């Protein structure tokens, strides 16, 4: 689109249009993520409600910044706080999104893994619950894996990816890897973190797979609007 600037000279405003369109897309996607509200908590798979709603699971090592990312994406200070309260740290916490009378998606906050102080038996039990969830939860339509951008994908993250890899490969489950705390990296380090993650995720790629990687910072808000757009598009592919 061509407009005139103040001095009356025509200027090409394409770049301005693009960023205005992007800002509008971010705004509407973030308005959607903001609707998230606590639904229920479950310590076992068979306690989760059977649902037709598409479910997006948030996973990551403990301390990866998962709770902060969920709170930032939903613009709610304490939403993922439930997942941190004693007794609930090993639960799957479900949040419902969309209009109250017509919910359209669920977010599932899965327990953080790799926390050294957890007893071995509890770790094993949780590994099984997570593996089971990722392999068989019918309504699972996407996984958001939070990875500390300074650590990159660790062995535990790769183990987790293996559980869901078959469903990612067929395109049944989408995958978004968020490299968190990106504010701590300079430009060169950020590029290296993206490249290293890309190299690992390449193993999962196929014609059908939908895999994304993005830098994310709750502090600078980098990547927040884009991540919200990705999640909203998973649920509402046609939405602008
Ligand atoms: P969780 O265990 O994965 O839920 O991790 P938390 O959300 O509790 O975050 C772990 C630590 O990382 C906390 O001290 C957060 O303040 C910090 N953190 C989380 N996100 C960011 C971020 O975007 N930038 C920075 N600098 N620190 C962050």
Total number of beta strands? 9
| Low-pLDDT residue spans | 1-7
As a percent range, the share of helical residues equals: 25-40%
Order of helix and strand elements from N to C terminus = EEHEEHEEHEHEHEH
How many helices? The count is 6
The ligands found in this model are: guanosine-5'-diphosphate
What distance lies between the first and last C-alpha atoms, to the nearest angstrom?
19 Å
Order of strands in the sheet with most strands: 3-5-6-4-7-8-9
- Could you say which structural class the secondary elements and strand pairing correspond to? alpha/beta
User: What's the main sheet like?
Assistant: 7 strands, mixed
Mass-distribution shape: globular
Strand content: 15-25%
Mean pLDDT: 90
In angstroms, what is the radius of gyration? Answer: 19 Å
Structure write-up:
- The protein is an alpha/beta fold and 240 residues long.
- Helix content is 37%, strand content 21%.
- The protein has 6 helices and 9 strands; from the N terminus they run ββαββαββαβαβαβα.
- The strands form 2 sheets. The protein has a 7-stranded mixed β-sheet, with helices on both faces. It has a two-stranded antiparallel ribbon with strand order 1-2.
- Helix 1 crosses helix 6 (224-235) and helix 3 packs parallel to helix 4.
- Guanosine-5'-diphosphate (GDP) binds at residues 60, 62-68, 112, 180-181, 183-184, 217-219.
- Guanosine-5'-diphosphate binds at residues 60, 62-68, 112, 180-181, 183-184, 217-219.
